[in-house]
Amino acid sequence: MKKNNKRTDAKSRDDIARTVEQSGADLKEKVGDLDKLEKDVATIRDTLANLECGGTAEGADAVDQAITGAEDITVEIFDREDEALEDLQSENEGHEQDLSEHSDSEHSDVEKLSEASSRISTNETINEMVKAKEAALQDIDFLIEQIRRVKEARDDSEKSQQGYQGTVHGTRS
Amino acid sequence: MNQDQLDQETNNDAVYEPRAEGYGKLRLYGLVGQVLRELEPLLKQLEDFWPMMPKVDANGNSECPFAEDMYRKKAGLEKKVLEKVAVLRDMRNDIARELERCKRNLARISVDAGKLQTRGAVKQYDKGFCVQEQEYLEAKWQLDEVEETLLRAQATLEASRRKAYPVPLSDEWKPTGLPASASSYPEARGQTKLDREVGDLISLGKL
After folding, report:
1. Containing domain of residue B190, as a range?
2. CB atoms < 10 A from the CB of B97, how many?
């Protein structure tokens, strides 16, 4: 009964590949957004470092305040996008888990098929079981490849994210 | 560590290069306006005064009995104008430096704004640019006003100096020449009204 449900819920390879590809593209896009924001923060800090501003009796210079405001806004957006990236990474991790469970299930099927085939003597049935086993093994290979892709995309995004966080928050004055 | 060293260290820690201190003070206390306001009446007085200088010969003799006094007064005015002009020249240098600072900042803000992709940040840059532009214009107007006044002062001083007293004037103010009327003579005191009127008429010379 359980197995039947699984088969009903099971996604096609195309669906899985599309999901994995979309997840990778989403992560890449978000990392791209963070990259732009990090560059903007760097530009703004460069402006602030090179501006010849000074204090007046009334308080901080208005020009300096405006540019500092630009930094605040950009960092705020960066933080928002950073959170969105983390959501995507969690989603991506969810995909990886689904794929792993799917892969484990396929492994279990293969084991069951191997076990069953040792007890069956009918050639036709054995051939069918071999075909099913081969299909399951192909699925496993496919899933392992998809898991690798999903993980690679997330690792890449996490690596970039750490770098951006370091730049934006590590050196913030 | 004394206060100066402490201040120096604090300034070194600051990310921003401070506004030219001289201009900051000028702006803060409105000193340029004050000097301009002080110079204006002096300049006006000199402009009105130097064309009235009486003719004097090479030895300083003049038909005008107050010639030396008038020249002395003119020299005093010139001195006062010169003092203000010297102060204003220093201020002009500070304002010119401020103007250059504003120009550099405007260029920096403009170039960096072009690199930004965050809309909110660009808006803030626009705001900063406007404020900086206002500071630039303020300094520009002030510099124009100062330069105009300096040119006017220079022209007035040159014209005034062309009518110089031929011999050195003593610093001490001593009334010289004849008084305005014969009735001013000490010996005129005690005379009758008629005597004084006759004396005044005589002092006018031939009609």
Report:
1. 177-207
2. 15
B170 plus B195 within the same structural domain: no
- CA angle (A81, A84, A87) in 5-degree steps: 155
In this structure, what is the dihedral angle of CA atoms B138, B94, A69, B107, given to the nearest 10 degrees? 80
Tally A–B CB contacts below 8 A: 101
**B48 three-state secondary structure:** helix
Beta carbons within 8 Å of A164's beta carbon, 6+ residues apart = A34, A35, A37, A38, A78, A82
**Token match 């405006």: residue?**
A66
Chain B environment of A39 (Cβ under 8 Å): 115, 117
Cα(B139)–Cα(B144) distance, integer angstroms? 9
Distance CA A77, CA A83 (A): 10
Q: Could you report the predicted ipTM of this complex, rounded to two decimals?
A: 0.80
* CA neighbor of B124 nearest in space, from A68, A33, A43: A68
pLDDT, tens digit, 9 for 90 and up, residues A101-145:
989 988 898 888 888 877 877 888 888 888 888 988 999 999 999
Per residue in B67-109, pLDDT (tens digit) is 999 999 999 999 999 999 999 999 999 899 889 989 999 999 9
Q: Are residues B145 and B195 in the same domain?
A: no
Considering its fold, how many domains does chain B have in total?
2
- Same domain as B201, residue B121: no
State whether B139 and B190 are in the same domain. Answer: no
Chain A residues within an 8 Å CB radius of B7: none
Chain B: nearest CA to A33, how far in angstroms? 10
**pTM to 2 decimals?**
0.72
Q: Residues of A with CB below 8 A from B101's CB?
A: 52
Residue A67 CA to residue B105 CA, distance in Å, equals 11
